[in-house]
Amino acid sequence: MTPEGDVSPQAGQQDWPAVTGATLSGSIRVRTTEQGLPLAIKVDPAELRRDPAQLAGEVLRLCQRTANRAGLALRKQLEEAGLDAAGLSRTGLPTEAEVARQEIVEEQDYDTEPQSWLRTV
Fold it and tell me: What does 29-74 look like in DSSP terms, one character per residue?
C-alpha cells in the first residue's frame, strides 16, 4: 500500500475483466472483477483518517455495487445477443430493478452524513 492508499493488482490478475466504481466525491475508488473482488483500491489521504471499520464498509459496498452493475451490463449484453427471458433468468444476473432496489436500500441503510463533534445551533 502506498501513502496515497493505492493497492496495485497482484501478478496474474491484470488479465481479468475489470470494472470500476467510486464514491460520489471520488475520494474512494475501486477496480474489481465482475464478481466484485477488488483488484485495486484508491483512497484519498483524508479518508484514511476515518474509522477503519467505516472505511472498510464503504470499500465493501463499492465492490458489491460495482459487481451488481457489471452483472447488469452483462445481462444487457446477453439480451442484445438474443438470449431469451428464460435463459436470462437462469444466469442469475441481476435485473435493472434489482440493482436499483439494492442501491436504494444501501442509501437508506448507510448513514452518509458526516460524523463530527460539531452540531447545528
Answer: EEEEETT--EEEEEE-GGGGGS-HHHHHHHHHHHHHHHHHHHHHHH
